[in-house]
Amino acid sequence: MGKVIAIANQKGGVGKTTTAINLSACLAELGKKVLVIDMDPQGNTTSGFGIDKEEPENTVYQLILKDCTIREATHSVEGIDTLKVIPSNVDLAGAEIELLGIKEKEYILKNEVDYIKNDYDFIMIDCPPSLNMLTINAMTTADSVLVPIQCEYYALEGISQLIHTIDLVKERLNDRLKIDGVVFTMYDSRTNLSADVVNTVKDNLNAYVYKTIVPRNVKLAEAPSNGLPINLYDSKSTGAESYRNLAKELIDRK
Ligand SMILES: Nc1ncnc2c1ncn2[C@@H]1O[C@H](COP(=O)(O)OP(=O)(O)O)[C@@H](O)[C@H]1O
Ligand SMILES: [Mg+2]
Prior knowledge:
The protein has 254 residues and is α/β, with parallel strands linked by helices. It has 11 helices and 7 strands.
């Protein structure tokens, strides 16, 4: 059965989407069957895989309103046979209100994903930058949460709130849920600050810390505008290398 990993941190700009795209693509490159679910109305994971956000008839939005099946919402990605995407776009921003009063609204995504869990090795969910009902749906679906932490001064801000939310979901909605681990992103080896942040987080957080640290790499920032994951955009870049290593580490830990 596929392992479901939610990539979450309510802080914006920490590398959730970059990790969702590139870690998933590298898992697929290593022969794993991967489904990526874009739970962010910004749809950056969707466009990062070269899917036009406005194009798909069936997205996460139609899925959670039960206007389509999960297989109908699942789209192929050019150039990567073993990777599929359930896209999203700005429509999803209205979902929270539409879900008001709906029974079991915390489990809508989970109930759908249960149908196709056996078809994949990994199901990766890119979360929005907030702890809203979309994130709760991701966490009730997930087996674990992967937390990207940006190597900058306020890195730990909000992390205790995130961990509290994960604990609450575990207690009340999904007793399988655990913290998969923390991955550092945008590491700058030229500054002491990045190294300081890594050490502070290690000292203060009781969670697995991935040995692979993702460096700041301009190719990672460029790739989405070409609609390509890093391994297809620039396979030899340090960004591609690091997400490949992260994928291997994740597989070894499974
Ligand atoms: N390792 C990296 N090196 C360089 N730029 C990065 C890296 N990771 C992310 N970025 C850039 O930082 C910005 C925020 O990253 P993103 O993955 O969208 O964060 P989030 O999904 O948490 O909001 C994006 O413009 C992205 O291209
Ligand atoms: Mg994002």
